[in-house]
Write a structure and sequence with these properties.
This protein is mostly beta strands. The protein is about 0% helix and about 55% strand.
Length: about 110
């Protein structure tokens, strides 16, 4: 079974930083695509960032460009989302996703 396990969420003040992690198991990690999505209360789920695990090419939503960085550790089948200069509007449940699609359970990020 494919499992995506997120960690690293929490509560921070505006301007602060958090790093989310997503460990994938049971999944053909190489030459695939991993992504982070988020969903705020009352809003639709939106894509935040994605990475092609083979090439390392990345994509960011305009709302996070320049503040968030997606990266990976291929040896650990793990994707990270470094979030800097956090804003209250970044408050949401953040989900890791893999092509399939497969979804993690989500980790809450709250910015006050």
């Amino acid at each position: 079974d494919v499992q995506l396990v997120e960690s690293g969420g929490g509560s921070v003040q505006a301007g602060g930083s958090l790093r989310l992690s997503c460990a994938a198991s049971g999944y053909t990690y190489n030459r695939n695509c991993m992504a982070w999505f988020r969903q705020a209360p009352g809003k639709e789920r939106e894509g935040v960032a994605r990475i092609a695990t083979g090439s390392g090419n990345t994509y960011y939503a305009d709302s996070v460009k320049g503040r968030f960085t997606i990266s990976q550790d291929n040896a650990k089948n793990t994707v990270y989302l470094q979030m800097n200069s956090l804003k209250p509007e970044d408050t949401a449940m953040y989900y890791c996703a893999a092509r399939g699609p497969y979804w993690g359970q989500g980790t809450q990020v709250t910015v006050s």
